[in-house]
């Protein structure tokens, strides 16, 4: 469970937080247990590859993948329609 005062992860059997020293209410522990039961289990939803990876790292991995996809799409377009590209280039000059 987590301390409601400082947010640190503490053992479920704690009466006091070992980080901030504040008393941990039994009601708080019960509320956190109920919330954990209702919350979806994100570890199994992520699949094999992203299991346990921090969400920020997932986003940072997505950015280069998206850029690579755009570069490949642009290269395919240029290779597929070279005549169209040259016509547009001639009108711009």
Brief overview:
With 93 residues, the chain is mainly α. It contains 4 helices and no strands. The model has no long low-confidence stretch (mean pLDDT 79).
Describe the overall structure.
The protein has helices spanning 26-38, 42-45, 55-80, 82-92. It starts with 25 loop residues before the first helix and ends with a helix. It has 4 helices and no strands. It folds into 2 domains: 1-39, no CATH class; 47-92.
List the helices and strands and how they pair.
Elements: H1 26-38, H2 42-45, H3 55-80, H4 82-92
Using brief descriptors, characterize the structure shown:
mainly alpha, 2 domains, rod-shaped
Instruction: Specify the overall morphology.
Output: rod-shaped
Main sheet characteristics:
none
Number of helices: 4
Distance between the termini: 66 Å
Strand percentage lies at under 5%
């Amino acid at each position: 469970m987590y301390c409601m005062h400082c947010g640190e992860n503490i053992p479920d059997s704690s009466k006091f937080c070992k980080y901030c020293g504040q008393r941990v209410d039994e009601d708080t522990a019960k509320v956190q247990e109920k919330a954990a039961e209702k919350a979806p289990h994100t570890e199994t939803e992520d699949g094999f590859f992203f299991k346990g990876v921090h969400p920020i790292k997932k986003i940072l991995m997505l950015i280069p993948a998206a850029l690579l996809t755009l570069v490949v799409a642009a290269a395919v377009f240029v290779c597929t329609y070279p005549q169209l590209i040259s016509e547009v280039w001639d009108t711009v000059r």
